[in-house]
Design a protein that fits this description.
By secondary structure, the protein is α/β, with parallel strands linked by helices. 36% of the residues lie in helices and 20% in strands. The strands form 7 sheets. The chain has a 6-stranded mixed β-sheet. A 5-stranded mixed β-sheet has the order 19-14-13-22-23, with helices on both faces. Strands 6-5-9-10 form a 4-stranded parallel β-sheet, sandwiched between helices. Strand 9, helix 5 and strand 10 form a beta-alpha-beta unit. The radius of gyration is 24 Å and the shape is globular.
């Protein structure tokens, strides 16, 4: 029996096929196709099955990682979304937090809400902080909101009421009304997706889920149909941001949980490679065509955070993005990818990214019409890439196109093309090393003793340069590192995280209440896992609690 892993990146779609009995591995790498990435997936699946000379029926499991959710939120290409919320809290989504993420920036930018003000509707209802009803839900207000939502031709709706994480009675009633009056609309209700305190973050998470849900449902259903048309009857599982995976049905319900779906595979592959050679402390360094990410792990475990951001106004400034209350591996974006475009900034100094050439037209050396110099072009001119053996010899690189693209930038910087290429390479390495250093410091960790494990198409090219700047003495480049994220998907267990908020002093702790909350989450989680094909006696439950000082 074979397992097939598929990882869609901004530039390439990676596929890995593994014989579960003998461990033999086949790989494929195809350009990501836009606007429908599933076309590239199906092309790659056909190619890899042909290379392995196996029948589609021989594949027992398919697991998929994607950047679709992240890209949708960044590019603002999701569904037309409305919000129904407690009267007086219509603008909580726009007001956000009180703090400024950069107190010295006089022209500070905040991300625009996913729901414009005219599509945010207030209804009369109110709960006390402990969950008691202060004011019953006005069902007529909900019905009027539905009428206005229908006239606005909205595709998705989020419902967020004050203190609903303690008592969801009003949200459930409002959801029943919306479903009966707007059956065609995708609905996200806060107590199902983010049943935790902090109104702004809960609202942001619920709205983000609603915003991407129609697109994710269409995409995954289309992908399932395409795989079945190729003859694959194996169940399709989707990678989550917490390092686990789930069934398509669960992914369609909680699409916001896929926000870091793709990069998690690289972290799991790095931990696996470190374990194979007895290295417990690893710096997972995954550099693809669009971005580079880093994650620090110890003994195979990576930290999980329930506070993340997406679609930042400033790429490396925490607080400038949309906050999400979803469990994600605590990784950071540390720099550019191979397709990131090099240019001169406003001060005439060299800079790289954040714009990327992607797969269309791609770096200049791809010969697909790209004219801007990228990191890949610089690496090719410096001799780090073999123009005649790119993608295992399946794709030729055009050295003269890279040289021409670099010549244009060199003229602006008053350098030679070789000096420009060297500058781009060194600048990227320095930026990534600095970001990784800051990430370690923020977590209170000393990088001494860590091993850098490089994955991604561009990771091995830059690994030694980054490691030397960090003072790391060991670099591991695992087999099939270029499709490391796809390989890592195979290592992901089927898993799901749940959270509840219960605010009390320890002196007043109601243990029965705590156990009831745990039981609710565990029952729900067991249903999700069994629906994905996990036997009841194979389910493992882990409990955790966050506590704070009064």
């Amino acid at each position: 029996m074979f397992m097939l892993a598929i990882d869609i990146g901004g530039t390439f779609t990676d596929l890995v096929l593994r014989d579960q009995g003998h461990g033999e591995i086949f790989v494929a790498k195809v350009l990501t196709q836009y606007p429908d990435p599933s076309l590239g997936v199906l092309e790659g699946v056909g190619q890899i099955l042909k290379d392995a000379q196996i029948k589609p029926q021989d594949v027992g499991r398919v697991i998929h990682g994607t950047t679709l959710v992240t890209n949708t939120l960044i590019e603002r290409t999701g569904a037309k979304t409305a919000l129904i919320t407690t009267a007086g809290f219509r603008d909580a989504l726009e007001i956000g937090r009180e703090g400024r993420y950069d107190i010295y920036d006089l022209f500070l930018k905040l991300p625009k809400p996913l729901v414009p003000r005219q599509l945010r509707f207030e209804v009369q209802e109110r709960l006390f902080a402990r969950g008691d009803v202060m004011q019953p839900l006005c069902e007529e207000d909900v019905s009027l909101a539905c009428d206005r939502i229908s006239k606005a031709e909205v595709d998705a709706v989020g419902i967020v009421f004050l203190h609903a994480y303690v008592n969801p009675v009003h949200e459930r009633l409002a959801a029943e009304i919306v479903r009966s009056r707007l059956p065609h609309v995708s609905l996200s209700v806060s107590h199902e997706f983010a049943p935790e305190l902090r109104e702004f973050e809960r609202t942001s998470t619920t709205v983000a889920n609603a915003y991407v849900q129609p697109l994710v449902q269409k995409y995954l259903n289309r992908l399932e149909d395409g795989l079945q048309a190729l003859g694959l009857v194996a169940p399709l599982h989707v990678m989550l941001s917490n390092g686990g995976s789930c069934a398509v049905e669960t992914a369609c319900k909680y699409p916001v949980r896929l926000v870091e779906s793709g990069p998690c595979g690289g972290a799991l592959a790095a931990a696996h490679a470190g374990e194979k050679v007895g290295r417990k402390k690893v710096l997972a360094f995954d550099m693809g065509g669009t971005t580079a990410k880093a994650l620090l792990g110890d003994d195979g475990d990576f930290p999980i955070t329930t506070e993340s951001e997406v679609a930042r106004e400033y790429r490396f400034k925490r607080g400038s993005g949309l906050p999400l209350l979803v469990p994600v591996l605590d990784m950071i974006e540390i720099g550019a990818g191979g397709g990131s475009i090099a240019h001169a900034n406003a001060m005439g100094l060299p800079a790289v990214g954040p714009e990327s050439a992607g797969s269309q037209p791609g770096p200049a050396c791809y010969g697909l019409g790209g004219k801007n110099p990228t990191v890949t072009d610089a690496d090719l001119v410096l001799g780090y890439l073999n123009a005649d053996y790119f993608l295992g010899g399946k794709m030729d690189l055009n050295l003269s196109e890279s040289q021409e693209a670099l010549q244009n930038l060199a003229g602006v910087l008053d350098l030679t093309p070789i000096e420009t290429a060297r500058g781009i390479h060194e600048l990227v390495n320095e930026n990534m090393a600095n970001a990784a250093r800051v990430h370690a410091a923020e977590r209170g960790l000393d990088l001494d003793g860590y091993t850098l494990v490089a994955t991604g198409g561009a990771g091995p090219v830059h690994a030694c340069g980054v490691a030397s700047r960090l003072g790391l003495h060991t670099v591991i480049v695992p087999p099939v590192a270029g499709v490391g994220s796809a390989f890592g998907l195979m290592l992901a267990p089927i898993a799901f995280d749940y959270a509840r908020s219960y605010v009390t002093n320890l002196d007043d702790l109601d243990v029965q209440r705590v156990n009831t909350l745990y039981a609710e989450m565990e029952n729900e989680g067991q249903g999700v896992l069994q629906g994905a094909g996990v036997a009841e006696d194979e389910v493992e439950l882990n409990r955790a609690a966050d506590m704070r000082y009064v």
